[in-house]
Automatic annotation (TrEMBL):
PROSITE patterns: 2FE2S_FER_2. It comes from the Bacteria. Residues 1-85 form the 2Fe-2S ferredoxin-type domain. The keyword Metal-binding applies. The keyword Metal-binding applies. This is 2Fe-2S iron-sulfur cluster-binding protein.
Length: 89
């Protein structure tokens, strides 16, 4: 079930960083698109990568899996990130 947490995502900032700036913590480790710790699913919208091929298979990409540590938003997006946590206070 969606949390309804919203944050402003700049096209020049990764989704991971934008979420963090808004107090929402997504799991992460390498932050360069290889470890897949941050993987979550794009339900709506569009993202782009600046790297050639993030650590996702073609099938995963087609299913909407994204790596927010290297993903930049192109339009308003909706993410399913069950492991996200919100900083209190
Ligand atoms: S943090 Fe490693 S792939 Fe995103």
């Amino acid at each position: 079930m969606p949390s309804g947490w919203c944050f402003v995502a700049s096209p020049d900032v990764t989704l991971l960083q934008s979420a963090r700036a808004a107090g929402i913590r997504l799991p992460s480790s390498c932050r360069n698109g290889t470890c897949r710790a941050c993987i979550c699913q794009l339900l709506q919208g569009e993202i782009r990568y600046r790297m050639e091929w993030p650590g996702l298979s073609r099938e995963e990409k087609l299913e909407g899996w994204v790596l927010p540590c290297v993903a930049y938003p192109v339009a308003d997006i909706v993410l399913a990130a069950p492991a996200a946590e919100r900083n209190e206070g």
